[in-house]
Amino acid sequence: MYRYLLPYFCLLLFACEREQAGPAIDPYTFVSPEHFPPVAYDFDRNPVTEDGFKLGKRLFEDSRLSRDGSVSCSSCHQQVTAFADPQHRLSVGVEDRVGVRNAPGLFNLAFRSEYMWDGGVVHLDFAGVPAIESEVELDNSLAVIVDRLRADATYPEAFRRAFGTDTVTSGLMLQALSQYQAMLMSDRSKYDDVITGRNGAAFSATEAQGEAIFVDRCAGCHAGPLQTDNSYRNNGLDERNVADFGRETITHNPADRGKFRVPSLRNIARTPPYMHDGRLASLDAVLEHYAEGIRHSPTLDPRLEEPIRLTEQERTALIAFLETLTDWEFLADPRF
Amino acid sequence: MNSSFPYLFIFLSLLLLTACDDDVITPATGDTGTVEIEFENVFGPQTNQRSFGLGDTTDTEFPYANALDQPYRVTYLKYYVSEIVLEGPNGERYEEPIDVTATSARGFHLVDATRPESMVFDLADVPSGTYNSMSFTLGVDSTHVLEGAAGGDLDPVDSGMFWSWNAGYVAFKFEGQSPDSPGGAHGNSLVPGTPNGMVFHLGGWKDIEGTVLRNNNQRVTIDFLDRATVNDNQSPTIHLEFDVNSIFDGPGGTIDFGQSNVNMHSPVDATPLIRNATAGFRYDHIHQ
After folding, report:
1. Interface predicted TM-score (ipTM) of this complex, two decimals
2. Tens of pLDDT along B8-23?
3. Do residue A100 and residue A225 come from a single domain?
4. Which of B164, B205, B271 to mutate to test the interface with A (most CBs of A within 10 A)?
5. Claim to verify: residue A195 and residue A309 sit in the same structural domain
6. Do A164 and A247 sit in the same domain of this protein?
7. pTM of this structure
8. How far is A257 from A234, CA to CA, in rounded Å?
């Protein structure tokens, strides 16, 4: 007769379980690659959903976020170039106003805790706000955008599907943008395949030689699977560093003058021009800078006191390695 | 039939019914009450205080004067009160719950001189007892900046208290005019051409060595001269005052409008003013 109890025992077992996704991974679920460091973004506060992601993508591409409806986030951040600016040395905002910095690529953002070339933003949710408010970018305010979205024929319904409320607020808008941007994961390059042993991938002899040079001369700053140590450094672009104080803009500390975030080198072959102001047009020009172009100043990074001089053959090998960091699946992912 | 079967059946059914309950502690009636907190901005020391009101850049009067007898008027005044704690002589303790989401910010109160309704708010479910002190943070703690997008009183759209390029919340904003100020300051209520402007946007929520970044969020503790009795029948109002003039004279030093009329983006320079402001909060009375 105890068999009648069996269903109860079974029910008890499952009474507290949440619904689990099936074996197929939902393409709109954030998945942290095993070879990456711990995630910084708190997805418990803002779990990614398909509706939230799609709302975020729509906002990212909507030029009504700018004051005069002329530019969107995606004007300067396009997928084909790993969400960097495909054509401008410096970003171009409303009324063709020219910015002061080059729009960097956007990927693996959930693993960072500081954003912008100077690290002034400390949370992914707030990363879009300086661009929205900058007079040389979107030149708008959150308040105006929220009003526009509330008055729109379809946005409130999109917010309701994503967040369960059709009352558009700045917080929900920023969370939707974060869902989209956090999902911009670049972890499927040849480099990833090699270091994880996926797909039987292996570096060619040239790429392997390039990797050895990279580990020796570059990986001190462009460190780990994310290809950056997330520090701020002066890489010797200028003697006076007065055009842009960089990290000093945030800290007001002269010791930070001319220091900028060490960018990830993922997708680097796809994101010219290079440096915070886009002054170097090619990877060759970058290697030439590190060989012969270092300018000394009090805040120059000590690692660059000694120039990185490579033979032509070594440069070719290093660039071959850097090209293994291009994530073609990311660049062509139809979700983005 | 085994006689224990029905008991086991009932037991398992009960277990099933309660299996997913969170541990919600519902106090019995009489265990808690509501406390109303009221902030009032005033001018001057308690022994010689005047009522306070915001002015406008079109005004001709400068109704107030600082410790150096420099006249001024105030055109904008807002500050964050958060992480409120009430304590009593018998070990009573109440911490206002904090809960920040993209659409709400429980436990954060933006006191805005232009909105009387922002100056009065309730603390719910305060345990019964007597209370004789209250403390709060003047500003928004780093934990809550790092939680990301927020609503309620932390929504940047409505608050006017968020720094975007160097992200974080401003703790305290004062804007006004004084004939002794050289002007040039602009902010939420002043434009660059406004004569004699003064703008003090006091922020900073993290200390970073060797920088101007300081955690300026100060803890304010106010002892009550009376006691507030809380139970299900008694919902006292605790009336607190903020002496606006305190910003310019106090433990942080004396502010000369001729020398200092702008402080917007440098937390290290904001520290003296915010220390002064912290000392400007005081007890007034309790409506029992």
Report:
1. 0.79
2. 444 444 444 444 444 4
3. no
4. B164
5. yes
6. no
7. 0.84
8. 8
